[in-house]
Amino acid sequence: MRAWQIRRPGPIEGGPLRFVDAAEPRPGPGEVRVRVLACGVCRTDLHLAEGDLAPHRPGMVPGHEVVGVVDEHGPGAGRFAPGDRIGIPWLRGTCGRCRWCRSGRENLCPAAAFTGWDADGGFAEYAVVPESHAYRLPPGLGDAEVAPLLCAGIVGYRALRRAELPPGGRLGIYGFGASAHVVAQVAVAQGATVHVLTRSEPARELALELGAASAGPADGAPPEPLDSAVLFAPAGELVPVALRALDQGGTLAVAGIHLSDVPRLVYADELFREKQLRSVTANTRADGEEFLHLAGALGVRPVVTVRPLAEADRALADLAADRVTGAAVLVP
């Protein structure tokens, strides 16, 4: 099969990925194999390719927003039938025994494994997944449309919940890529007032098209104090900016797996009056099931640009240069 492998992490313009002929994977116990129909391009893939996140093994195939049809079962697997369309997400394994798993916080499991980081992902023609961590996908969305929901959507939804947005509240979204433009649709559909702050002019235009009340520059101020905010841009310098934009009692959730250094915070200006600063770590399977159901019910529709699998390196370069509006999706 054809697949992309991270051979030497570094700046994307240096070509850290190679498009190779690789052996087709075979499913192990409790696993299923899928023929990949689509795979979203996530900023985490870029962080792995460029070495912001240390690779867990050499020659990894990235990609963790995988839509495919089941074509082979490993020993003991039977949750899905041949031909079922399923999703392979970022979270691909947890121990089920630690105190985090037992308390419903499996996203914090010390033994958690991740697609495209601990095991090969979907920048390929075939991929395998433990059937326990795969999702049934909502009908009514095409393969390319549903792919970004499997990480950008799920993790963004967890970030929205961590931000504790009150009903009808005022939400600030910093950065407006794949995850943010899905979260904005959920918040608007649920009656929130959404203010988007991003450096990309095309992204601001998209935000307004999707129902945002305002869209301005990332380092600007929203037109009113915010009850909650989510920082999607991997820019630590925006943390104090977003905290200053919060009303008293507001919460800022940082959604990314990687963030540049946060500058010194001024307590009186940025944290006093019971403001909260929170991080977000992956998601639980319950988050995923809840979000996929909600996305179907609310009619969430990611804006996607489809690229052939052979252009994965160019898609990542476009993502690095902010040339992607919405989400990029690879199709073999």
From TrEMBL:
Give a Pfam family name.
ADH_N
The protein's GO terms of the molecular function aspect are: oxidoreductase activity
Q: Which SMART domains match?
A: PKS_ER
Keyword presence, Metal-binding: yes
Q: Record's InterPro entries?
A: ADH-like_N, ADH_Zn_CS, ADH_Zn_typ-2, ER
Domain named Enoyl reductase (ER): residues: 14-330
**EC class (word):** oxidoreductase
Instruction: Name the UniProt key words of this record, in alphabetical order.
Output: Metal-binding, Oxidoreductase, Zinc
Cofactor dependency: Zn(2+)
Keyword Endoplasmic reticulum set for record: no
Q: Which reaction does it catalyse?
A: a primary alcohol + NAD(+) = an aldehyde + NADH + H(+); a secondary alcohol + NAD(+) = a ketone + NADH + H(+)
Q: What is its EC number?
A: 1.1.1.1
Q: Which residues form the signal peptide?
A: none
The record ties this protein, via NCBIfam families, to: adh_fam_2
The protein here is known as alcohol dehydrogenase
Native organism taxonomy: Bacteria, Bacillati, Actinomycetota, Actinomycetes, Pseudonocardiales
